[in-house]
Amino acid sequence: MATRRKSSSTAGKPEEIRFEDRKASPDDPPLAPPKLGLILSASALFFAPFFYLLFYHYQIEPELRRSIAINAAMSFGGFVVAVRMIPVAARYVLRRNLFGYDINKKGTPQGAIKVPESLGIVIGIVYLVIAILFQHFNFTSDSNWLVEYNAALASICFMILLGFVDDVLDVPWRIKLVLPSFAALPLLMAYAGHTTIIIPKPLVQYVGVAVLDLGWIYKLYMGMLAVFCTNSINIHAGLNGLEVGQTVVISAAILIHNIMQIGASADPEYKQAHAFSIYLVMPLLTTSLALLSYNWYPSSVFVGDTYTYFAGMAMAVVGILGHFSETLLLFFLPQVLNFLYSCPQLFKIIPCPRHRLPRFDPQTGLLTGTKDGTLVNLFLRLFGRCSEKSLCIRLLIFQALSCLLCFGLRHFLAGWYK
Ligand code: UD1
Ligand code: MG
């Protein structure tokens, strides 16, 4: 968000842009080093089961395995590049006055530091380069997929652009809400896949058919999914590490879900849909981990709406192309709850302040929940005051439990539901 306004929201009056402020001083303190130890050990939690399922547990065709392994190697390369690029880009955005103040540290020396904003732009660019280059290594002959793959990339690219526009221009809330529907257009226009849904078995007797063709309504649903995924990540935010952390947890769950579907199916088209999903989600996961190494508490960079929109759009297109939007929405359970709880404020039934964040006490370093309708505040009210880091960890554990619940539901309802 436009830093100038962000700083104004905390200072109370608009900040003047002085020319001399535009130059970063040569003795600017360097960015704190990335928390790589923490990130790499956390990564083992989900990459270990993923590679176990890919190489040992399931019998997967060597070609497909090879494509996934190349994608993993390129994604790891993206991680390394992003870790190196973030400090460089951070200097440039600071020079352009693109920074924010850490609201949950207000009143402490850390709260007065200008934290570089919108570093999601680095992640978005590295992601796009990997996803574009990877097409060279996709060894399937079905080129129809490439049309949708490139349309998906166009949507993600458009979303990164609009997110960055929002960060720089500070777009009003009602316009923010609709930006993702424009970004989703390339995918919606190019989408040539089926527009049918399988009716859950217990409902077939009421609907009368087992498979229902929704036609254009299906495309409308896809557009709404993109709007929901992007905005719901953007409003479940405001704690160091939360925006990126939730994306990491959800994309890890998507990755494992995809490999389980590939392993359990014999239908080549179904496998291909999930393979494409893997190709798009793996670089999202690794580049997000790179960003998390700087954004984890205490954040040395902020991700900006560039990142929240980009991550939401990437996950939406992955769910659309992989045909598992219901599962995706179950992975998004905390975001769904946060959105429902936010509705009265989002739709202006009750007043909505610029930031709906908890109250920080600089004496104790603890956060207290306010009356604003967010999951962040609800957790503080339900489980008591705690530090920003503990609150973020609690929310991420809740995110992981929602994903596990989704895996459990899929397992127990298989055969009965669909
Ligand atoms: C959304 C939320 C808003 C929340 C904000 C925090 C709604 C309707 N909007 O607005 O309530 O306060 O996200 O991201 O729910 N910041 C921190 N610590 C962090 C991350 C961000 O203090 O860990 C602050 C910084 O000042 C940063 C600013 O939030 O500059 C970024 O806010 P922005 O993403 O522009 O807010 P919105 O997405 O508009
Ligand atoms: Mg935001």
Automatic annotation (TrEMBL):
CC annotations in GO? endoplasmic reticulum membrane
What is the membrane topology noted in the UniProt record heading this document?
Multi-pass membrane protein
Annotated membrane-spanning segments are 36-56, 68-93, 113-134, 146-165, 177-199, 220-239, 245-264, 276-297, 309-333, 391-413
Matching Pfam families: Glycos_transf_4
Q: Which CDD domains match?
A: GT_GPT_euk (cd06855)
Q: In which pathway does it act?
A: Protein modification; protein glycosylation
The protein's annotated catalytic reaction(s) are:
a di-trans,poly-cis-dolichyl phosphate + UDP-N-acetyl-alpha-D-glucosamine = an N-acetyl-alpha-D-glucosaminyl-diphospho-di-trans,poly-cis-dolichol + UMP
Chief subcellular location equals endoplasmic reticulum
Q: Which top-level enzyme class is recorded in the Swiss-Prot or TrEMBL entry? A: transferase
Where it sits in the cell: the answer is: Endoplasmic reticulum membrane
Q: Which GO terms describe its molecular function?
A: glycosyltransferase activity; metal ion binding; UDP-N-acetylglucosamine-dolichyl-phosphate N-acetylglucosaminephosphotransferase activity
**Mind listing the UniProt keywords for this protein, alphabetically?**
Endoplasmic reticulum, Glycosyltransferase, Magnesium, Membrane, Metal-binding, Transferase, Transmembrane, Transmembrane helix
Instruction: State if Translocase is listed as a keyword.
Output: no
Q: Could you tell me the Gene Ontology terms of the biological process aspect for this record?
A: dolichol-linked oligosaccharide biosynthetic process
The annotated regions of Basic and acidic residues compositional bias extend over 13-26
Query: Which residues lie within the region annotated Disordered?
Result: 1-28
Query: What EC number(s) would the UniProt record show?
Result: 2.7.8.15
Per its Swiss-Prot or TrEMBL entry, what cofactor is needed? Answer: Mg(2+)
For this chain, the family text in UniProt reads: Belongs to the glycosyltransferase 4 family.
Main function? UDP-N-acetylglucosamine--dolichyl-phosphate N-acetylglucosaminephosphotransferase that operates in the biosynthetic pathway of dolichol-linked oligosaccharides, the glycan precursors employed in protein asparagine (N)-glycosylation. The assembly of dolichol-linked oligosaccharides begins on the cytosolic side of the endoplasmic reticulum membrane and finishes in its lumen. The sequential addition of sugars to dolichol pyrophosphate produces dolichol-linked oligosaccharides containing fourteen sugars, including two GlcNAcs, nine mannoses and three glucoses.
Show the PANTHER family listed in the entry. UDP-N-ACETYLGLUCOSAMINE--DOLICHYL-PHOSPHATE N-ACETYLGLUCOSAMINEPHOSPHOTRANSFERASE
Record protein name field: UDP-N-acetylglucosamine--dolichyl-phosphate N-acetylglucosaminephosphotransferase
Organism per entry: Elaeis guineensis var. tenera
The upper taxonomy is: Eukaryota, Viridiplantae, Streptophyta, Embryophyta, Tracheophyta
